[in-house]
Amino acid sequence: MNDFTPTERTKVRRLPQRGSYDRAVVYDILDEGFVCQVGFVAEGRPVVIPTAYGRDGDQLFLHGARASRMLKALRDGAEVCVTVTLVDGLVLARSAFHHSINYRSVVVFGRARVVEAEEEKARALLAFTEHVVPGRWAEVREPTRQELDATLVLALPLAEASAKVRTGPPVDDEEDYALAVWAGVLPLRVSVGEAVPDPRLPEGVGMSDCLARFDPASRRARPA
Amino acid sequence: MNDFTPTERTKVRRLPQRGSYDRAVVYDILDEGFVCQVGFVAEGRPVVIPTAYGRDGDQLFLHGARASRMLKALRDGAEVCVTVTLVDGLVLARSAFHHSINYRSVVVFGRARVVEAEEEKARALLAFTEHVVPGRWAEVREPTRQELDATLVLALPLAEASAKVRTGPPVDDEEDYALAVWAGVLPLRVSVGEAVPDPRLPEGVGMSDCLARFDPASRRARPA
To answer: Which of A28, A36, A85, B68 sits 20 to 30 Å CA-CA off B38?
Structure first.
């Protein structure tokens, strides 16, 4: 798996030690996020829209209804910038100025392509479902031809991308380390609450296996 | 507190019942997020950058080093689009097609202004710190004049904004409700792990009050 080549747009300039062009690092972050932010230009002005996504190898899939403004803007091959950001902790320094956040983020640049072939479209829908809860695809009703037709799927090649990662304790000014102020990191993570069954769930339908073993922080695309 | 007037850009067109122009709804989402996504146009192409932020009344503050690419692009009053997205749960339907995510998101459009006055800059740094952990500002060393000078602060008026919110169970096709597939919502929330003290923390410095009572989901800007 070859790594990314930094480009004018993906090269991390501010604090370059936080940058990574390692494909495994980038893909781990993409696989852990639930929502990406899609940036595009509409009438010369920036628009950013949060949306679900899925990854299939070196492609990122986006989808939505055919009428959506974002997909209309992107379907003609317009430039797009997609980011995924995971917040890992609050970095509490001794000074207000040095407070920070531990995070992992990915930025992807490129042009999306409309997925037309029914087979690839079905693979994209599998990627969306498995991205959220691995193993879910095998439990649910597969998409019908009508559902596939109603969905616009875009594929963005994972060719121009980079990650930016901050970890570790605060970095304070040398003279501040003597202050009697608690400093350190408050880790944050995504945790799962108790499942809320659908009010219309028929009696006797038990919790699914893939949900019982679900861990939001270690989901990997596991195509059936 | 008057609500937002939907504009060409903020009007929620796809699933309009999910849209809200209620200022309190928008501000609650902004106050709960840790990182926003800043979209701008650079050389005609979209760029999205995750960054920390703070809110002070009807203004959103962004900040960074003077050399940062994003702040350079925005300081001249370029159009910006800022989003904050909170993921509240996974919506597990009986069909792959109807899987969804419960979320709350905000989009803000506008042009940022450089904050020059030292007093307003100090207020912005207070807003950043209190946004992350309410009560923290009073515990830490305040910024020096040099630190204020090194920081570029931008203020974005909260004038053109809207929220989009999905809640509740899956919406399945009528005939799918009979399927023996577990369906419902898996709630997600941000939880706090055990605090990691800075390796250089002097002995005897106890946990701070504001961290001991910290709850990531109910932080409100509480200026000192």
So the answer is: A28
What span, in angstroms and rounded, lies between the C-alpha atoms of A220 and A217?
9
Q: Would residue B212 count as lying in a domain? A: no
Check which CATH number belongs to the domain holding B158 and give it.
2.30.110.10
List the beta strands (DSSP E) in A35-78. Answer: 36-42, 45-51, 54-56, 59-65
How does DSSP classify residue B108? E
Compute the nearest-CA separation of B81 from chain A (Å): 6
**Number of domains making up chain B:** 1
Instruction: State the ipTM, two decimals.
Output: 0.94
Of B40, B140, B193, nearest to A95 by CB-CB distance is: B140
To the question of pTM greater than 0.90 for the whole model, the response is yes
Q: Looking at the domain assignment, is residue B162 inside a domain?
A: yes
Nearest-CA neighbor of A86 among A216, A213, A193, A215?
A: A216
In a domain, A223, yes or no: no
Distance from CA of A20 to the nearest CA of B (A): 16
Nearest CA in chain A to B173: A141
Would you tell me how many other CB atoms lie within 10 Å of the CB of residue A203?
Answer: 4
- Contacts with A81 from chain B: Cβ below 8 Å: 39, 45-48
Would you say residue B121 lies in a domain?
Answer: yes
Task: Write out chain B residues lying below 8 Å of A46, CB-based.
Answer: 39-41, 46-47, 79-81
Residue-number span of the structural domain to which B75 is assigned? 16-192
Contacts of A64 in chain B (CB under 8 A): 14
- Mind listing the pLDDT tens digit of every residue in chain B (224 residues)? 789 999 988 998 888 889 999 999 999 999 999 999 999 999 999 999 999 999 999 999 999 777 777 888 888 889 999 999 999 999 999 999 999 999 999 999 999 999 999 999 999 999 999 999 999 999 999 999 999 998 899 999 999 999 999 999 999 999 999 999 999 999 999 999 999 999 999 999 999 889 988 999 988 644 43
